[in-house]
Amino acid sequence: MSRTVVITGANRGLGLELTRQLLARGDRVIATCRQPALATELARLAAAHPGQLERLPLDVARPESRDAFLAALPPLLGDGRLDLLINNAGVLPSGERFGQMSQDALETSLRTNAIGPFLLAQALAPLLRDGATIANLSSQLGSIARVTRFGTPSYCASKAALNMLGVQLAQALAARSIIVLLLHPGWVQTDMGGPQAPLTPQASAAGLLSVIAAATPAHSGQFLDWQGQPLPW
Ligand code: NDP
């Protein structure tokens, strides 16, 4: 059965690979990114999958961009409903040093990685079908239990915040059997993960989509890796 999916940060990295695999399995995808006009890979996918892929601008950190996206979305939804939201877009600032942390760096990570995904999910909730799924790309680096050294504090804090907001969302949407997942994709070969990462985007995306497909309401609010293994908060 064809499902309708919204995904953020779809122009490169894991977002692009997830989009590719969703299209290959026959889903309708509304792929969002900051600058669709520059997203050449998405343009290629749109040409290869006529009528299956829509591209809309969305900067998840900017409320006015979210409002414009929400206004443009309804005509693109076939029966008016969404089956899956993948909050994939994320930012990992480099070079953070203790003593030099700035208000700006902390706010950018929190806006992009935690506040944006939560507010997008909240805004899309009325359009989600009962039993739909919200998959949030979290990170093992957001696990407070696993912190062993000072490193990328704005990113770690933003993913921990995303986890808590995801658990809150799971509670808010439980009555509609909407499944909210916090997913660690593994360490993946993307611009963010770098070339030395052990996992390909193809393997990570395939694993993530299997975990999403197998999830039931009993999994809602859980923090799982790309193979479905639970992670400590
Ligand atoms: P990349 O850096 O390769 O891609 C990041 C994507 O997020 C790009 O499409 C980028 O768009 C987009 N993005 C960044 N800021 C915004 C914004 N404000 N609005 C909309 N889109 C934005 O990262 P990955 O593909 O590796 O990461 C995907 C997700 O997986 C992220 O949430 C990340 O934190 C998480 N993750 C990744 C790991 C890894 O090893 N790769 C490990 C753990 C978690 P643009 O091109 O416009 O910058």
From TrEMBL:
Molecular function via GO: oxidoreductase activity
Domain of life: Bacteria
Pfam family name, one: adh_short
GO CC annotation: cytoplasm
Ketoreductase domain ranges (all copies): 3-229
CDD domains: carb_red_sniffer_like_SDR_c
InterPro entries: Fungal_SecMetab_SDRs, KR_dom, NAD(P)-bd_dom_sf, SDR_fam
Homology family: Belongs to the short-chain dehydrogenases/reductases (SDR) family.
Name of the protein in its database record: NAD(P)-dependent dehydrogenase, short-chain alcohol dehydrogenase family
UniProt source species: Thermomonas hydrothermalis
